[in-house]
Amino acid sequence: MFTVLLPLLLISTITTTTTAAAAITTLSSDIAALKAIKSSIKPTTIPSYTCLYSWDFTSDPCSPPHVTHFLCGLSCSGNRVTQLTFDPAGYVGTLSPLVSRLTQLITIDLSDNKLSGAIPDSLFFLPNLQTLILGTNSFSGVIPPSISNLKSLQTLDISRNSLSGSLPNTLASLTELTRLDLSFNKLTGPIPKLPKNIIQLALKGNSINAYLQKQAFNELTQLEVVELSENSLTGTIPGWFFLIPSLQQVNLAHNSFTGVEILKPINSNLIAVDLGFNRIVGYPPANFSAYPMLASLTLSYNKLRGRIPWEYSKKTTLNRLFLDGNYLIGLPAKEFFSVKTSISGSFGYNCLKSCPVSSELCLKSQKPWSICQQAYRGKLKPKS
Fold first, then answer.
1. Strand 138-141 vs strand 344-346: parallel, antiparallel, or unpaired?
2. Omega before residue 65 within 30° of 0, cis
3. How far is CA 203 from CA 31, 137, 147, 194, in A?
4. Is residue 291 within 8 Å of 265, Cβ to Cβ?
5. Fewest Cβ atoms closer than 10 Å to its Cβ: which of 159, 197, 284, 322?
6. Which GO terms describe its cellular component (predicted)?
7. Domain holding 320: CATH number?
8. Is 112 a domain residue?
9. Does residue 327 form part of some domain?
10. 133 Cβ contact partners less than 8 Å away, ≥ 6 residues apart
11. Is 227 helix (H, G, I), strand (E, B) or coil?
12. Beta-bridge partner residues of 118
């Protein structure tokens, strides 16, 4: 039996390599930023089962293994923090301006907490940020023009907060942005020019009060979903809007639109349209039937008159049709009530001459005849 003696240099090399592999020391500026971020949260709102509770700076944030400390809430690449992701624990506090020291951040997700105050302007200078989700908090203040510095941003969600003011005109500079959700805030003013690669746009539940301007939607060849309901948009919904090439779902309900122009498409991916609860006058637009994939159409509670377009009854793709709460007259086409038809929806609370109560479409009763006569200035013939 004999012992193999390794050269001293080789032993030294193995020891150094093993130690280097095991020990990763987080950049000091990242550690300082994380300490400031945790310090900005009210300690009594950090229960023992939460991610932030495990942030114990006697350990290194980026050094594995994470057995007792830094169990969650952040991710690293090497010695840099790349993701800041709070758990939805109801943390109360603010977001420290020192978040800007985490210059390698790709993702920030602090949603479903109780963070308040202004979003630090310094956050909008993070050069690598791709995802910013601050939804369902209590952030206030305005969205600053400096948001245009987030050149890599792909997802922006600050919905369900208390942001105010107008949308910045610099939004169009976010050329990588595909998803924008600022719903349920206190935003006002018009919709500015939007980023050209946007796919999903949601501004529901604000006080946006302007016309739909073509310049805002120019070059949006990838836009699929538009959610602008519960605002104060006015005027006529222009025909070009529904011709946006990739558009699939549109919700403009609960606004103050007074008209709608529907042009026949060359081709279209439009599947669902909701224009309910506006002030739209005129006749139901027959040209909606020319949209080859349209499956759901809602025009409820407007001021539409005339007859239900027979073209709607012939459209085989249409399976949801809500026309209730208008001043429509006449007899609905019998095809609506055929056993071969599977349309759901409502024709109720109109001025229809006859609507078979055996059909789901007619479960809701029609308007009193006196109201219908008043709407048509006494020119309606009595129901037989």
1. unpaired
2. yes
3. 36, 16, 17, 12
4. yes
5. 197
6. membrane
7. 3.80.10.10
8. yes
9. yes
10. 108, 109, 110, 111, 155, 157
11. strand
12. 140
Dig out the tokens for 193 from the structure: 């020019």
Question: At residue 7, what is the residue type?
Answer: P
Query: Rounded CA gap, 202 and 216, in Å?
Result: 14
pLDDT at 379: 74
Residue 115's pLDDT band (cuts 50, 70, 90): very high
Instruction: Give residue 305's domain range.
Output: 76-376
Given the DSSP bridges, would you call strands 320-322 and 344-346 parallel, antiparallel or unpaired? Answer: parallel
Q: How many residues does the chain have?
A: 384
Token reading at 146: 């400096």
Residue 309 structure tokens: 């377009």
Instruction: Flag whether pLDDT at 159 surpasses 60.
Output: yes
DSSP 42-86: -GGG--TTSTGGG--TTS-TTSSP-SSS--SSEEEETTEEEEEE-
What's the rounded Cα separation, in Å, for the pair 272 and 317?
A: 11
Q: How sure is the predictor about 229, in pLDDT bands with cuts at 50, 70 and 90?
A: very high
Query: Using alpha carbons only, what angle is made at residue 167 by residues 99 and 172, rounded to the nearest 5 degrees?
Result: 85
Phi/psi at 37 (5° precision) = -65, -45
The answer to whether residue 42 sits within a structural domain is no
Please check whether residue 37 lies inside any domain of the structure. no
Q: How buried is residue 286: exposed, middle or buried, by Cβ count under 10 Å (0-12/13-18/19+)? A: middle
Which pairs from 242-250 meet CB under 8 Å and 24+ separation? 242/268, 242/270, 242/273, 242/291, 243/268, 244/217, 244/220, 245/221, 245/269, 246/199, 246/221, 246/222, 247/223, 248/224, 248/272, 249/224, 249/225, 250/226, 250/274
Q: What are phi and psi of 376, to 5 degrees?
A: -100, 15
In single-letter form, the type of residue at position 40 comes to S
Find the farthest-apart pair of alpha carbons in the chain and give their distance in angstroms, rounded: 117
Cα 175 to Cα 178: distance, rounded to the nearest angstrom? 8
Into how many domains does the chain fold?
Answer: 1
Instruction: Let me know: does 136 contact 116? Beta carbons within 8 Å.
Output: no
0.70 exceeded by pTM:
yes
